[in-house]
Write a structure and sequence with these properties.
- The structure is a single chain.
- By secondary structure, this protein is an alpha/beta fold.
- The protein has 11 helices and 9 strands.
- The chain has a 7-stranded mixed β-sheet with strand order 5-4-3-6-7-9-8, with helices on both faces. The protein has a two-stranded antiparallel sheet with strand order 1-2.
- Strand 1 and strand 2 form a beta hairpin.
- Helix 1 crosses helix 3, helix 2 packs across helix 3 and helix 6 packs parallel to helix 7.
- The two termini are 32 Å apart.
- The chain binds S-adenosylmethionine (SAM).
- Its EC number is 2.1.1.297.
């Protein structure tokens, strides 16, 4: 995945060398100036971001506006309209949680654990639908027959996911399982849920891009960060098929407590950790 992104950036870089960006009213003389502006604003990957912003438009005025917004702290993905996730450009719109690279680990586990030839897969708390999209596409490419449903409580996220999952799966709006079609109850083989898991008291310490631009309901997991997780586990007991799995991402220090919640609900629990992705996923099996 990393190599794919690097090769994509290399292609964009070559495009830039071949194009002249002399900005309107002399605002942007060259890519170097954009890089300098982004770097001064604290963008760690200023070169890469400049390349992607330049690639996003042929209009110097629009480019100037994009750079100004990025300098003011707007997440890059909102400006590009997409986020790279498992090698796919997933559509993103303002106000919808930006898929994080670490969540690719949850999809890895989902794919590894999918032994059935035909699966009912649900992406709960779907945001853009990135998890359902990539898991379904990759499983289908492996010859699996996958029926995908996704759901989120936020109408903006639902609209975004409907765009991303058009022709791939259906998307429902509502509170956790209440959003899902009743016929799925007791029949879900794989339940992916990247629930909000930041403890409320920690929200203020998040990086400004998340704190100021992503909606609190996409981040806030209540007092210990596991409030929505507990509700997902409560529902999973009814909604999973026998042998079905629920996979939830969380922070490293929440894993043991989350596994205990799963065990108390009568399911088998295991904790998966990845040093590469810096990610923790708990898996409950009914
Ligand atoms: C951390 S984001 C994850 C989004 C996406 N799965 C991803 O990983 O990119 C959490 C999502 O949960 C949604 N959400 C929060 N509370 C919810 C609820 N009670 N029912 C359904 N979705 C909810 C938010 O709107 C947000 O899109």
């Amino acid at each position: 995945m990393h190599n794919q992104l690097m090769s994509e950036l290399g292609r964009v870089e070559r495009n830039i060398e071949q194009r002249e960006f002399i900005g309107a009213e002399g605002v942007w003389e060259c890519k170097g100036e954009i890089v300098a502006r982004l770097r001064a604003a604290g963008c760690v990957f200023a070169e890469d971001e400049a390349a992607l912003l330049v690639e996003a438009t042929n209009d110097a005025d629009v480019l100037g506006a994009l750079v100004a917004q990025r300098v003011s702290g707007v997440p890059l993905e909102y400006l590009l309209g997409w986020a790279e996730f498992r090698g796919v450009r997933v559509g993103v719109r303002a106000g919808v949680f930006v898929p994080r690279q670490r969540t690719a680990f949850l999809v890895d586990i989902a794919i590894e654990s999918a032994r059935e030839a035909a699966l009912t897969l649900v992406d709960l708390c779907c945001g853009t639908g990135a998890l359902g999209l990539t898991a379904t596409s990759e499983l289908r490419a492996n010859g699996k027959d996958v029926a995908l449903s996704a759901a989120d409580i936020d109408p903006v996220a639902v609209a975004c996911a409907r765009d991303n999952l058009a022709g791939i799966g259906d998307v429902h709006e509502g509170d956790l399982f209440a959003a899902l079609p009743p016929h799925l109850r007791g029949h879900i083989d794989l339940l992916l849920a990247n629930t909000p898991y930041v403890p409320t008291a920690h929200l203020a310490a998040l990086p400004p891009e998340a704190r100021d631009h992503e909606p609190p309901h996409a981040l806030d997991g209540g007092i210990d960060g596991l409030a929505i997780f507990r509700r997902v586990i409560d529902g999973a007991v009814d909604w999973l098929a026998p042998g079905g799995r629920v996979l939830v991402e969380m922070s490293a220090d929440q894993g043991e407590l989350a596994a205990d919640v799963i065990t108390r609900a009568g399911m088998r629990a295991r904790i998966e950790r990845s040093a590469e992705y810096y990610a923790t996923v708990v898996v409950g099996t009914r």
